[in-house]
Amino acid sequence: MDAVETHGLSKQYGAVRAVESLDLRVPAGSLFGFLGPNGAGKTTTIRMLMGLLRPSAGVATVLGRDIRRASVEIRRRVGYLPGDLRLYENLIGRALLDFAARTRGIDCHAEIGRLAEQLELDLSRRIRGYSRGMKQKLGLIMALMHRPEMLILDEPTTALDPLVQHVLYDELRAAAARGTTVLFSSHVLAEVESLCEQVAIVRAGRLVEHDRIENLRTRAARRIEFTLANGQSPELPAGLRLRTRAGGRIIGAWSGPVQPLVRWLADTGVGDVTIGPPDLEELFLAYYGSNDGAAKSAGTAA
């Protein structure tokens, strides 16, 4: 069973289409990245999955339960970090976590202590004195502390320093290894690429790609740089897209299997060859473009 399944899920605010006919499947037990630029519709989708927004159209289930009829049960079974985290700032950190644990009816003291130590968060301080990064750590502990069946995290690395980000990555990998489904949104390609098995890319409220990371890599271009001997001007192979050419120095992007490229280089007799790994950045930036006007129809949806 898929942990999340949507069919035609849509949200419209007047003339603004924040999410449009989203068909999404998140396999149970997976580390799943929900990727897109700011304003692509990621937060709106997550709020609908959590029952915090009512869809304008379509259906969706989380952990097999309908988001319209079972939102309370879904929130009980899911660890959720909102993108606009709001906290009771007059409380100290530990008091807020103890309150959340009592609300859930679960003894989370041991896990709270472990996570606070891992994330280096002082729970004895009043929340109003926390920095933005400290508040984000507190929100993450609230989402993780009861070891839920599923984690839904909206931009979880916001305001975290690089060392703490890597601690969080380890926690998410460990959760997935226990069988927890992890769905998190991001606009940062590097963290999705390093963590996720599958990714969905949204732009202007529409799903533009949904595939395994390894399959995306096979379609991504490689950066190639080489030098031609003096006087050489061979016809470039069909898979090579030229970026710059200065004298005999050529820089380009190669799409497809690398073997034909290697054969062409050997037959041509070029020197100083550098072939880079598949460059997902270029592939993702192509999806992020908005030359079809779709972005205008979505306005500034989150």
Give a description of the structure.
The protein is α/β, with parallel strands linked by helices and 302 residues long. It has two domains: 2-216, Rossmann fold (3-Layer(aba) Sandwich); 220-286, Alpha-Beta Plaits. The chain has helices at residues 42-49, 71-77, 93-104, 109-119, 132-144, 162-177, 189-195, 213-219, 259-268, 280-288, 294-297; strands spanning 2-13, 16-27, 31-35, 57-62, 65-66, 78-81, 150-154, 181-186, 198-203, 206-212, 221-227, 240-246, 249-254, 271-279. The strands form three sheets. Strands 6-7-8-3-9-10 form a six-stranded mixed β-sheet, sandwiched between helices. Strands 2-1-4-5 form a four-stranded antiparallel β-sheet, with helices on one face. Strands 12-13-11-14 form a four-stranded antiparallel β-sheet. The protein is elongated, with a radius of gyration of 23 Å. The two termini are 29 Å apart.
